[in-house]
Automatic annotation (TrEMBL), chain A:
Entry-linked InterPro entries: ARPC2/4 (IPR034666), ARPC4 (IPR008384)
This protein's name: Actin-related protein 2/3 complex subunit 4
Record lineage: Eukaryota, Viridiplantae, Streptophyta, Embryophyta, Tracheophyta
Subcellular location(s) of the protein: Cytoplasm, Cytoskeleton
GO BP field: actin filament polymerization; Arp2/3 complex-mediated actin nucleation
Biological role: Functions as actin-binding component of the Arp2/3 complex which is involved in regulation of actin polymerization and together with an activating nucleation-promoting factor (NPF) mediates the formation of branched actin networks. Seems to contact the mother actin filament.
GO molecular function: actin filament binding
TrEMBL record, chain B:
Quaternary structure, from the entry: Component of the Arp2/3 complex.
Protein name: Arp2/3 complex 34 kDa subunit
UniProt keyword list: Actin-binding, Cytoplasm, Cytoskeleton
Location in or out of the cell: Cytoplasm, Cytoskeleton
Keyword Cytoplasm appears in the UniProt entry: yes
Xref: InterPro entries: ARPC2, ARPC2/4
A single GO molecular function term of this UniProt record: structural constituent of cytoskeleton
Chief location bin: cytoplasm
Function per UniProt: Functions as actin-binding component of the Arp2/3 complex which is involved in regulation of actin polymerization and together with an activating nucleation-promoting factor (NPF) mediates the formation of branched actin networks.
Family per record: Belongs to the ARPC2 family.
GO annotations of cellular component type: Arp2/3 protein complex
Organism: Linum tenue
C-alpha cells in the first residue's frame, strides 16, 4: 500500500517536472547585464508560473515553483519520531552544506521544508533534462531509504551496546 | 576514572566496548619500566589524569629495592563537589588486599596525598603473574573509588528504608543510592548539552530496558528509564532533579554483589555516565560516516550521467579532429597551436582596459615571433 502510494507520488512529481522544466535564458528586467533566477527574486509576476504543491500525506509534500529561467523544488520528508527528526535534519543539513557537489541543490531549504533544489536554464543546458529529473526522483527515494537505514543502524547499535553493558553484571 | 576501551569489531557496529580497564596506563608503564630495569633507575614522576587524579612515583638509585607511589584522588562525596579527604579504614584494607606482599601502606601518607605505598619489586614473582601484580598496583585509584561504593553495597540485605544517598564523583553529575528492603536502587539523572544527544540517549535507554526485561537477561539488575524522578527522590533539590534526559535506575540485589560480582557491579555503575557519553559519541561518528558514504554515492550518480554525455560528445567529435591532424604537417600544427594560445592570452588581456596600458604592453609584453628559415629580419 505504502509502496504504491510512493510510486504514485513520485510519478506525479516526475510528470510535473517534465512539464515545468522548460527553461530558457532570460536576462534580468530590473538590472541590466544581470541574469538571475527569477523564481528566487519573484519581482516580475509575468515571469512566474503558478506553484504546484503535491502532497503524499500531511507529513510529506513537494512544492514546485517555476519561472521562465529557473525552477525551485522543495521537499518535506516524513519524520515519524524524534530520532527520525534529528537524523533527517542532520543528513539534509550535511548535504546542503556540500551543495556545490550537486550543482542543483540549494544551500538553505525554503522555510517549512527540509531540502530545496534550484534548477536554472544553465543546468538544463549542461545536463540532460531527463537525467536531471531522474536524479531528483532517485534522490527522493534514496533519502527515505537512507533515513530508515540510519535509524535502524542507530537502534541496532544501541541494542548491541546495551547487551554488552548488561554482560558486565554477569 | 580511567576510561580505556578494549573494543571489538562486531560487523557493522564497530568500536563496541568490552570493558573499562581499571589500571592507569601511564602508571602501569612506569611501574613495568621500574620492574624490568636491570640497573637502579632514578625516577621522580608526577602524573596527572583527568585533571583531578595525581600520582607521584619516586625511585632512587640509592635504594634500588624500594619505590614509592603516592596517590591523590577525589572521592565519592555527599556534597556538591568531590572531596579529597582521608581514606576510610575499609578503603585502606582493600588497598592492602590488592597489593599483598609487593606493596606496603606507609603511614602517614606523603604530604598532599591520601595514600603512599612502598613498593618492593623484588617480592613480585618472576613469572607470567608479574604483569598481573603490576596491573593491580596501577589500579589503586580505581580500588579507592570502588571501595566506598562497596561499603554501601555490603549492607544491601538490610531491612528498612533510608534516606537517599547522593554521591558526587564528577562535578554536576551526582547519582543517588536509595536503600530499600532487599535491594539498593542506583538512580542516575541524565543531562546532555544537545538535543540530538538526548534523542540518541533516550533511544539507547529504551533498548537497555527492552534487553534487560527479556528472559535471557533476568539475572542482571532491573533497569528502568523514566522522564520524571522516582518518588523516593522527591525531597531532593530542584537543581539536581532538573534534567533533559530523564532518570535511569538500576535495582541492585544481593545476588549482584556477592563474591567477585561486587567488583564488577560497582565498577560498571561508576562508569555508567562515561559509558553513555561514549556511546553517544560513537553513534554520532557512525551517523557521520554513513552520511559521507551516501553523499559520495549520490554525487557519483549525478556525475556519471554528466560523464556519459561528455563521452558521447567526445566520441562524435573525435573523427574530424584526427582527420585534421593527419592533413597538416607537424610544424604547421605546432605553429597553429601556439597562435591559438597567444590569441587566448590576448583576449584575456583585452578584457581589462587600462588607460595607457596598450603602449606599455606593446613595448614590454609582446611575445617573441617565431622566425622562419625562409624569411629574414631586417637589421636597424
Amino acid at each position: 500500500m505504502q509502496a504504491s502510494s510512493l510510486r504514485l507520488y513520485l510519478t506525479c512529481i516526475r510528470n510535473t517536472l517534465e512539464a515545468a522544466m522548460c527553461l530558457q535564458n532570460f536576462p534580468c528586467q530590473e538590472v541590466e547585464r544581470h541574469n538571475k533566477p527569477e523564481v528566487e527574486l519573484k519581482t516580475s509576476a509575468e515571469l512566474l508560473l503558478n506553484p504546484v504543491l503535491i502532497c503524499r500525506n500531511e507529513a510529506e509534500r513537494c512544492l514546485i515553483e517555476t519561472s521562465i529561467n529557473s525552477l525551485r523544488l522543495s521537499l518535506k520528508v516524513k519524520q515519524a519520531d524524534e530520532l527520525e527528526n534529528i537524523l533527517t535534519k542532520k543528513f539534509l543539513r550535511f548535504l546542503s552544506i556540500r551543495a556545490e557537489a550537486f550543482q542543483v541543490l540549494r544551500r538553505k531549504p525554503i522555510q517549512g521544508y527540509d531540502i530545496s533544489f534550484l534548477v536554472t536554464n544553465y543546468n538544463c543546458e549542461e545536463m540532460q533534462k531527463q537525467k536531471l529529473i531522474d536524479f531528483i526522483v532517485q534522490f527522493m527515494e534514496d533519502i527515505d531509504k537512507e533515513i530508515s537505514d540510519l535509524k535502524m543502524s542507530v537502534n541496532t547499535r544501541g541494542r548491541l551496546v546495551a547487551t554488552e553493558f548488561l554482560k558486565q553484571f554477569l | 576514572m580511567n576510561l580505556w576501551w578494549c573494543g571489538a569489531m562486531k560487523g557493522k557496529s564497530s568500536n563496541m566496548p568490552c570493558c573499562f580497564e581499571r589500571e592507569s596506563p601511564a602508571l602501569k608503564q612506569i611501574l613495568l619500566k621500574l620492574y624490568h630495569a636491570e640497573k637502579p633507575v632514578e625516577i621522580d614522576h608526577h602524573l596527572y589524569e583527568f585533571g583531578s587524579v595525581e600520582y607521584y612515583v619516586q625511585s632512587s638509585a640509592a635504594d634500588p629495592h624500594h619505590s614509592f607511589l603516592s596517590v591523590l584522588t577525589p572521592l565519592l562525596s555527599q556534597g556538591e563537589i568531590p572531596s579529597n579527604g582521608p581514606l576510610s579504614p575499609y578503603t585502606i584494607q582493600m588497598v592492602k588486599d590488592i597489593c599483598s606482599e609487593s606493596a606496603e601502606v606507609v603511614e602517614p601518607a606523603r604530604e598532599g596525598y591520601q595514600l603512599t605505598l612502598k613498593l618492593n619489586f623484588s617480592m613480585i614473582p618472576k613469572s607470567k603473574e608479574s604483569e598481573k601484580v603490576v596491573r593491580r598496583i596501577a589500579s589503586v585509584q580505581a580500588v579507592i573509588i570502588s571501595s566506598q561504593l562497596k561499603e554501601i553495597f555490603r549492607g544491601v540485605d538490610s531491612h528498612g528504608t533510608f534516606q537517599p544517598i547522593k554521591l558526587v564523583y564528577y562535578p554536576r553529575e551526582p547519582f543517588y543510592l536509595i536503600r530499600q528492603p532487599q535491594k539498593i536502587t542506583a538512580v542516575f539523572p541524565m543531562r546532555f548539552k544537545e538535543h540530538s544527544d538526548v534523542v540518541i540517549a533516550t533511544a539507547f535507554f529504551q533498548e537497555l530496558m527492552d534487553v534487560g526485561s527479556s528472559a535471557k537477561w533476568a539475572k542482571t539488575p532491573t533497569c528502568t528509564w523514566a522522564p520524571i524522578p522516582p518518588p523516593e527522590l522527591r525531597g531532593e533539590s530542584i537543581e539536581d532533579l532538573s534534567t533533559n534526559g530523564g532518570f535511569v535506575s538500576f535495582d541492585i540485589c544481593s545476588r549482584h554483589v556477592e563474591g567477585k560480582k561486587l567488583e564488577k557491579t560497582v565498577w560498571t555503575l561508576l562508569n555508567f555516565y562515561a559509558f553513555v557519553k561514549n556511546h553517544i559519541k560513537c553513534t554520532r561518528g557512525l551517523i557521520q560516516r554513513r552520511m559521507q558514504k551516501r553523499l559520495e554515492s549520490l554525487v557519483e550518480v549525478l556525475h556519471k550521467g554528466a560523464m556519459e554525455e561528455d563521452n558521447k560528445v567526445k566520441r562524435r567529435r573525435g573523427g574530424r579532429y584526427i582527420r585534421k591532424l593527419v592533413s597538416l604537417s607537424k610544424f604547421k600544427t605546432l605553429k597553429r597551436r601556439c597562435s591559438d594560445i597567444v590569441n587566448k592570452i590576448k583576449r584575456l588581456r583585452y578584457r581589462i582596459k587600462i588607460h595607457g596600458f596598450n603602449r606599455f604592453r606593446r613595448r614590454w609584453l609582446t611575445l617573441p615571433k617565431f622566425s622562419s628559415s625562409r624569411g629574414y629580419s631586417r637589421l636597424e
